[in-house]
User: What shape does this take?
Amino acid sequence: MTALTQSLALARETASVRKGPSKGLDRAFQAASLGSALLVLLVLAGILGSIIYGGWPAFREFGFGFITSSAWNIGTEQYGALVAVIGTLASAFLALLIGVPISLGIAIYLTQLCPGWARKPVSMTIELLASVPSIIYGMWGLFIFAPLFARFVQTPVSNVFEGLPIVGSLLYARVPSGVGILTAGIILAIMIVPFVASITRDMLDQIPTVLRESAYGIGCTTWEVVRHVLVPQASVSIIGAVMLGLGRALGETMAVTFVIGNANRLSASIFDPGSTIASRIANEFNEADGMQLNALMALGCLLFVITFIVLIIARLLTRRAKLA
Amino acid sequence: MDARNPILATAPAAAYPPRANRVRPGRRVADKILIAGSTLATIIGIVVLGSILLMLIVEGIKGFSPMIFTQPTPGPGSEGGGIANAILGSLVLTVIGIVIATPVGVMAGTYLAEYGRNSRLADLIRFLNDILLSAPSILIGLFVYTLMVRPMGTYSGWAGGVALAIIATPVIVRTTEDMLRLVPSQMREAGVALGAPPSHVIKSVTWRAASAGIVTGILLALARIAGETAPLLFTALNNNSWFNANLLGGIPNLPVMIYQFALSPYQNWQSLAWAGALLITVTILALSIVARLVIKDTRAR
Assistant: This one.
């Protein structure tokens, strides 16, 4: 009898203990996490789809000429992307030209030269530069940098080079207002420096200290260690970091809109105002209608293609470096 | 740590002072140029940040008054006014963005770290997420415009919130995944050995272990979207008065307000733009510093 009750009680107890959480909830949780992950895919596809859908009429109307035409006439409904595409590429190229040496310098300073106590605050300062909103860079560029730039760079340089072939047209400011493609390039350079510098610093930090120490041990100077030991080790990932910076520079909107001058003019001078794809969309989209809207969407499409090629290359390069 | 020290330390102590003879001049020059160049680059970086902060503080404090927290933005040509509506609008938009992005981002990051791991689908999503992370934000604005503003027929706070959510999600996905991957697998195994189903292990073991890191990711995403302007231009737009409770129509917000007011000819608009810029930058810098401190705390533990 007691044995029976005991076994009954035991059975009841095990039954209550073994009542695990329901399988359904577990499945639902997994499905929810998979769904969220797929949503990321869906959003990217949606961005591409919506821009192609919006820009399609413009591509159909103007064909390949959309890319090679420099017209942007709202009255006659003639639109071409050339000025904006060149402005985008030129300002991003200038940004790399100025920004990459500075970023590498900062990364080398932080990993090789900086005294231990200053490392933390200096790298924190550089990283904080990355979190300043782009509109603040735009205001700084327009209100602080542009007047100084016009007065101390544009005017004297224009005066010196005026009339000379090539440099004369490349560095001549018709109206030294301080805004233009070069100013946009400089502001973009300042914006990409924190990214490129911090990624490069991480890559340099990953290189085994033994390599550096042995190079110093055979009497190398800092320059030789950097040139022959560190750079070859990290070169692929540094190029990846630079491409990431390029992707940012190509798509940056607000800071560029402030300082580029927003002119639809093809000019040989980098001191002259121009426009980029992003700045043109930001300026005109809200008032656009009909074909202009489609043309702006088509511009967005071009921007999508350009930046995504750059970003894919960047990710592939940084990824391969991680595996190696 | 500092591998350069031995050279410096031995140089003055060496018995033969003419060091120039031992080192070929070209090598020394290259070295000096490198050191000078990289120090200069760092100084430029610090000077630029200092100059931006100085500009914000000087100009922002000029425009600062208690009124900016109580009055809505003034119309063109009128006197005084504040930015209270823009502050509130920005808060609402950011909250909508982060409320949408947090569950999606954390769940997607959980999928990548716990379920998908190294499967082909997970690799693809990870790759595309990294691309979305640095996609031009203006394209996200165009997408949300086509997705929400045009069908709804009006600019709205919802569209702005969704645009911000799309920007915040990849940040949260990335940090969540990274942080979950740092959790030692023994902890998961211990949970599974107790008979807990995977979802339970994730919820009460891995998430708990990585909670500080996930919070950091959310804070970083907040800092990222708080200052975003480009995607709001075509989604939330702006507005010079208080907004409807249903968030339809233009929603005033700080970034677009700063953009419009800074470029305006009115003196009081410009000073309001500076005050807004100071406010938003200080908030964002504070958020990023707090996020860094949270990370440091967990690492120390």
